[in-house]
Specification:
The complex is a heterodimer of chains A (255) and B (432). Chain A has 255 residues and is an alpha/beta fold. Chain A contains eight helices and twelve strands. In chain A, a hairpin with a 2-residue loop joins strand 11 and strand 12. Classes of the chains: A alpha/beta (255), B alpha/beta (432).
Chain lengths: 255, 432
Amino acid sequence: MTPILEITNLHASIDGTEILKGINLTIQPGEVHAVMGPNGSGKSTLASVLAGREEYTVTEGTVVFHGHDLLDMSPEDRAREGLFLAFQYPVEIPGVSTANFLKSAVNAQRAHRGLSPLEPAEFLALMKERMALVEMNPAFLQRSLNEGFSGGEKKRNEIFQMAMLEPTLAILDETDSGLDIDALRIVANGVNAQRTPHNGMIVITHYQRLLNYIVPDVVHVLWNGRIVRTGGKDLALTLEERGYDWIKTESSVEA
Amino acid sequence: MSVSAFTERIRSLAQHHDTAASEDAYAALRRHGFSAFERLSIPTPRHEEWKYTNVTSIFDGTLVIGATDAAQRPATSGAEITRALGADVIVLHVQNGRLQQDEHSVIEGVDLYDLRAGATTDDLQFLASIAKVDDHPFVALNTAVHDSTVVIHLHRNVHLERPIHVVCSADTTTSTQLHAPRVLVVAESGSSALIVESHHTVGEHAAVCVPVTEVVVQAGAHLQHVKIVADEGQGKHVGYTAATVARDATYASHVACLAGAFTRNDLVVQLIEPSASAILNGVSVLHGSEMADNHTVVDHRAPHCRSEELYKGVYDDRSVGVFNGKIFVQPHAQKTEAYQSSHALLLSDRARMNAKPQLEIWADDVKCSHGATTGQLNEEAVFYMQARGIDRAAAKALMTYAFAAEVVERFPHEGLRSLLEQHIAQKLEVSR
């Protein structure tokens, strides 16, 4: 089976400071990988490098996405090829409605795949169906993207966009941050509804709480730019119980 | 010096005018214009009001003053706006400064005619009563060289459903032109209307347009006034609009600068009686070496008046924007509400914006605010869109379009809005 994503010895830095110091990670179709770790361990940097943020420089290593060199692609091509980043802090875009934004995004992806744009009626029906997954009110479609949305609404909007773009690899960057328990459940249900045997997910989180709802196949612990532990879903529970300090201590000893 | 050659031509025109003059009120007004212009002359950038906009380069001795009767072609860009205003639009063609209509027409309670020398109508009293000849060099110039005034007079309680389109164009096929359209709008008490004024140039030679529009909005009247400068031709524009707004009346000005090498708009709105209100919207979308300078004045001269102003501009390449917005609140104008904001988006490192809000508040019980921003596109938002598969250029265009569209949405008339949106989208290369 061809992996969806294969990260080998990935090193990345920003402004001359190395943040990722040799990441190795392979995701097979159907798998959900959780990436946990204390603040500053490099979790969000990993998400940013995969999505193609220019501020980061990859100094070493490779990332292969569906057999193609991911690092060679522009951010928009990565998205069109099926990579999706759910932002930790979704951006407000004044004057651009959610509907208009998604129409541009979906049609850009379709054009990339040689498909014609969706008919307006067809597109509207699809949006309404997918919004229901995260219990979003269709009134949001006409509002400026994320402008004046609450924290929970922004995160739901991210998962709604994911449902519209049907990515083969979704990276959820601290999607649980700032969510109350009800919003967390809604968001997690929306994500779970999109799990298929063909796609993969990277769930980046600080806390184990989210993983009660989105149950991972594999859990990685990132610390100081490296994956220092990999295990099953129980690893998350151990972390919740013991904190990150024991990992830091053990990793320092190993290092 | 080109300016002195120009001034010399105006002087000789004045002498010719003097010898031919009758004792008619109109002739007296023009003489007043000549003497005021002689005193004020073409302002240099040393003059505070003309600091960022050097008009001395566009006036030279080669400009031909006064309309010729050669065959004149209408501007296609004008026809496009006329079409957008719908089938029932009333069109007034002002060609090289003169209304192309001899008869005095009355349509649905609105008088439409050309006020010329020798005429004796009550509307003469309004002429030059709002745009002050002695205060402004281009009001003086227009008054000196214009030869007639297009009058739009709405009678009491007339609600004109049909939009009026005043198409001002110049044909410069045979020579350069200085043209001075002059419009007087009188909205009597309780009346309402939409007037769209647009400016165009056809022909290879240069044209300089120095229009003056005076607007009298009487008690309880509501006037929507749109001004469009979208000159793809050789036209340069130095325009002046002044309005007085009486008790419970509203004057809403909407200015769009969508093309043009050189555009200067002066807009002066006086709120002269209690509970008058003014709305000032402006949008500029420029590229290449285009320039648009909007100088606005809102003068609160009575209590309980309200004004709300929003100007936005998008500047690409080497284009230049100027916004100078003055708000005066006179000592007795208590309970004034006056809001002003101006925002500029620079799409290139070489584009420039000069913004200067000026508030002079002499009353103590008022609500006033102003805000001016000049910035670039939010890179985080561009990346967010890229991360959804929208390419960088399209993401920028979409955001830029949205920035400008916020003002266009406030313009009246659906057909007009969609035309302006289409123009802006084309200019920004947005796929819609």
